[in-house]
Design goal:
By secondary structure, this protein is an alpha+beta fold. It is built from six helices and 19 strands. Strands 12-18-17-16-15-14-13-19 form an eight-stranded antiparallel sheet. Strands 2-3-4-9 form a four-stranded antiparallel sheet, with no helix packed on it. It is globular and about 80 Å long. The structure holds FE2/S2 (inorganic) cluster (FES) and fe (ii) ion. FE2/S2 (inorganic) cluster (FES) binds next to loops.
Length: 346
């Protein structure tokens, strides 16, 4: 089980709503400070937030005609990270600013999220796992509810927590949610999907009060894909609700979570503040558990993954392993998951 952070993949870096026109914001992904810039014209771009001249972050500077001007000596860099101006140069001094570059990253913005491709310069992006799209909605849809938070742990633990079905009755106790007293045995069908796996569409557990609020007979489908995206799609008749979670490694010890809900269900819109409060409450239960877990993990204990409750976690590690093997020897990706049923009590 490698603890290496996954590269040559897309990671969520921010939300569309964070970046107004002609503004910029600094983020950290994979131990690297990254500046996101939304120019007045054209798409969002991303460059490393460190001036190659003397290392000051561009984010202390300003935008000049859609380019970033360093606050220290005024060097200016464009959307490709190419230096376009060095103000101190005199006539006859033949340094070509265009030869000076700062790292830039491919960016995608869709369904209210900003993603960057973090990887090797020469890696063919089309071979990377696709960004999961919510097919019931168009590319310009915005989330109805957003929670952004930090887990003080390695991304692997955050991912495993995300797909762990057995902690529900213990961590997510709530008067209107589950408790261990109402837990019972469940059987769920799983199938492989490209670079991930899916809990195939089914009627969700009868002890989930939240589903009842929606009315009708909901069905749900949960998909996990590399590197770290979980999408739950609930259908109630013609209505759709998505819970979309993306994890991003800030460093080996810190993980950002973006958790969104999207819906076209009028009842949920009516109760939006309540739904938001509930999502917040739920997420902070997980954060609390992960923070407490760190108290034990700092002693580097050996850990266990059991059948079937932790099988999804095993699949995650297997997928990750395959991805690294694929990157190393450029052979085809051997999918480690087969269609199967898993059983657990929760
Ligand atoms: S440090 Fe950026 S221009 Fe000198
Ligand atoms: Fe949880």
């Amino acid at each position: 089980m490698t603890t290496e952070l996954i590269k040559n993949v897309w990671y969520v870096v921010g939300l569309s709503e964070e970046l107004k026109s002609k503004s910029f914001i600094s983020k950290v992904v994979m131990n690297e400070p990254i500046l996101l810039v939304r120019p007045s014209q054209g798409p969002v771009y991303a460059i490393k937030d460190i001036c190659p001249h003397r290392g000051i972050p561009f984010s202390y500077g300003r935008m000049v005609k859609d380019e970033m001007e360093c606050p220290y000596h005024g060097w200016t860099f464009n959307h490709q990270g190419v230096c376009t101006r060095i103000p101190s140069l005199c006539s006859g001094q033949d340094l070509d600013p265009n030869k000076i570059k700062v790292r830039s990253y491919p960016v995608r913005e869709q369904q209210g999220l900003i993603w960057i491709f973090w990887g090797d310069k020469d890696f063919p992006i089309e071979q990377a796992p696709e960004i999961p799209v919510m097919k019931a909605f168009d590319m310009n849809v915005r989330p109805n509810v957003v929670e952004v938070a930090t887990f003080n742990c390695h991304i692997d633990h955050a991912v495993i927590g995300l797909m762990d079905p057995a902690h529900g009755p213990y961590i997510h106790k709530s008067p209107i949610w589950r408790s261990e007293k109402t837990s019972y045995e469940k059987t769920k069908k799983f199938a492989p999907v490209p670079f991930g796996f899916q809990m195939v569409r089914h009627q969700p557990s009868k002890n989930s009060t939240a589903y009842k609020i929606l009315g009708g007979q909901p069905t749900t489908e949960i998909t996990f894909t590399l590197p770290s995206v979980r999408v739950e799609h609930i259908q109630v008749g013609k209505r759709n609700v998505y819970s979309y979670t993306a994890l991003t490694p800030v460093s080996e010890k810190e993980t950002k979570i973006h958790q969104m809900m999207y819906w076209d269900h009028p009842l949920l819109s009516l109760f939006r503040p309540f739904v938001h409060e509930f999502a917040h409450f739920f997420l902070y239960q997980d954060i609390d558990a992960v923070n407490k877990q760190q108290d034990g993990l700092k002693y580097d204990p050996s850990l266990m993954l059991i059948k079937d409750a932790d099988t999804q976690a095993k699949w995650y590690y297997a997928l990750k392993n395959e991805w690294f093997k694929f990157l190393e020897n450029k052979l085809t990706f051997q999918h480690p998951v087969q269609e199967t049923e898993l059983r657990w009590r929760s």
